[in-house]
Design brief:
The complex is a heterodimer. By secondary structure, chain A is an all-alpha fold. Chain A has 5 helices and no strands. The two termini of chain A are 38 Å apart. In chain B, 65% of the residues lie in helices and 0% in strands. The chains are: A mainly alpha, B mainly alpha. At the A-B interface, helix 2, helix 4 and helix 5 of A face helix 2, helix 3, helix 6, helix 7 and helix 9 of B.
């Protein structure tokens, strides 16, 4: 990508593969392109770091706990929808939010 | 924990709920609200950036859904359909708020090469206490809020809510390639900002100096 520290090689290869990295981390690339990326990463430290940190970024967001629906917001929603009779005594399971 | 709706098939349970909704069963309406209100609120919060506006979107989404439930044909999951209503509602409110500046296309008008990585700090091996600190969480929220709306909504549905690429495309009325392009840009932008943050954080913990905020 830029400023390679380990070796000098054709950066256009980094740019060419960049557009496939998102599909690569999702496991949605065909085998040939996967092999091309992996062969490139074996020689390119920066691209290896980008793939690793891209994967970690997605994991951090995916596993971050979602905030619960505030109870006052929930109560006003049920009132607006004229569903006051159905407000449960306990808010819904936070793991589903 | 993230609740995934990545299964495309509509379950018997959901078919039963839809049938009861279309028959006007009030308990079914309440069940739909109970199931989806949390997720719709979180999406609205991400899109609108403030709690009052997010609450308006939440209420309007369910009011619209109740009005339109007779026309729901079950070609997507109920949750995907609600996300679509919520996204459209949020976009309308954002246009009303900032009609002169808000444009659906503006986020894609970036200079070619803007997404090229420039940060190469490998934060993967930092201790969990650094990656999961309150300050890191705040930076993650700020990073997502700084994304252009059209990238942010794709990232939230796909990577936070756990929809598949196809479901995200259905929810937003986009093609699958458009979702993939926007998702890639969002992911790379977030990676870039988090890399810069964790690099500053690592230097700060070595030197004892406070972290310089992102401008």
């Amino acid at each position: 990508m830029t400023e390679h520290t380990q070796h000098d090689h054709d950066r256009s290869e980094c740019r060419r593969l960049l557009s496939s990295l998102s599909d690569y981390v999702d496991g949605e690339l065909d085998d040939a392109l996967c092999r091309a990326i992996e062969a490139h990463m074996a020689e390119c430290e920066n691209c290896r770091i980008v793939v690793n940190t891209l994967t970690r970024t997605i994991e951090l967001y995916h596993t971050a706990p979602a905030p619960d629906l505030p109870q006052d917001v929930r109560v006003r929603l049920y009132k607006t929808l004229k569903l006051e009779d159905f407000i449960a005594s306990e808010p819904p399971d936070a793991t589903e939010g | 924990m993230v609740f995934s709706m990545s299964t495309t098939a509509i379950t018997n349970d959901e078919q039963d709920l839809i049938r009861r909704l279309q028959a006007g069963d009030q308990a079914a309406y309440a069940e739909m609200v109970e199931r989806y209100a949390g997720r719709i609120y979180n999406l609205a919060l991400r899109l609108m950036g403030d709690e009052a506006a997010a609450e308006d979107v939440l209420q309007e989404t369910f009011l619209s859904a109740f009005r339109a439930i007779d026309r729901f044909e079950g070609r997507s999951q109920l949750g995907t359909w609600l996300y679509r209503i919520a996204n459209n509602t949020a976009l309308m409110q954002l246009r009303k708020k900032e009609p002169a500046t808000f444009s659906l296309d503006s986020p894609l008008e970036t200079e070619e090469g803007d997404e090229i990585p420039r940060q190469f700090f490998d934060f993967c091996c930092l201790p969990e206490r650094d990656l999961l600190s309150d300050e890191a969480r705040a930076e993650m929220r700020a990073a997502i809020d700084a994304l252009p709306e059209s990238l942010r909504v794709v990232f939230v549905l796909r990577d936070i809510e756990g929809l598949s690429t196809r479901e995200t495309a259905d929810a937003l009325g986009l093609s699958v390639p458009a979702v993939k392009t926007r998702l890639m840009r969002a992911r790379l932008a977030l990676r870039e900002r988090l890399s810069a943050y964790f690099a500053r954080s690592a230097i700060s913990s070595e030197t004892g100096e406070p972290i310089t905020p992102t401008t």
